[in-house]
Amino acid sequence: MTSIVQISDTHFGTETPSVVQALEDHVREHRADLLVFSGDITQRARRVQFASAEAFVRRLEADGVGNTLVIPGNHDIPLYNLFARLFTPYGNYRRHFGQELEPVFENQAMLVIGLNTTHPRRHKDGVVTARQVDQVARRLADSDPDKVRIVVAHQPFGAMVPSDLSNLQHGAAPALQRWAEHGLDLVMGGHIHLPYVLPLSRQYAGLAREIWMVQAGTTLSTRLRGSSPNSFNRLKLHPGEQKKVCVERWDLLDGRFVLGSHFNLSW
């Protein structure tokens, strides 16, 4: 069994120290093969916020995370510093999390493809480009079909409530149609601070196979949505001819993270 911990929308600069400690305690106890960090690492893309986020990730690695895959969110591009936004939009991100904006992780159990769907000329909307669709399709086609195959992007591909339809990726429909033909299993995201698991065939008719949407809430930030507490996802992968994934949502309760719900997915 292989495990992934997905965190998102930490918005360093608005994090709650006790929640940071609670997540570190969880990782120390349960460990993980891969940490997926699906964007909005910081609140305003400032160097001190990225430095705090990097130190946090390094502590998680020391506590038992085997590997890390990080992508930027729209908050990880400067908003008020217009010069930096136009000329070095990912400067602070790259200083602390490396040059690669679209990392890929692969082992015997999974293929995880990171997408950068942000752009300095957009405020918050995400876009999947034709180039990205082609690149992901080629990676999927070249991979072992027995592996669990995942795409990670900051903005969501599927909406649970009508008010989130405006937050969907631009270009989501043709991307999903193409990727389904090449065997994509899951898409993971954040952005809207609402955790859920959703079969995308309900929203996109005619997919060649089911693709599941796994959305993360805000893991550490005070910027909670409605009644949703701080949370993160833990995925337990069982690859093979019949792939199975258990998606657990862990919610903050009385100062610690506890199992809130779980979904069993299979293909």
From TrEMBL:
Domain of life from the UniProt record: Bacteria
- Family note: Belongs to the cyclic nucleotide phosphodiesterase class-III family.
Gene3D superfamilies per UniProt: 3.60.21.10
Tell me the GO molecular function terms. exonuclease activity; metal ion binding
Q: What is this protein called?
A: DNA repair exonuclease
> Which keywords annotate this record?
Exonuclease, Hydrolase, Iron, Metal-binding, Nuclease
**Keyword check for Metal-binding:** yes
InterPro entries xref list: Calcineurin-like_PHP, CNP_phosphodiesterase-III, Metallo-depent_PP-like
As given in the record, the signal peptide range reads: none
- Enumerate the spans annotated as Calcineurin-like phosphoesterase domain: 3-194
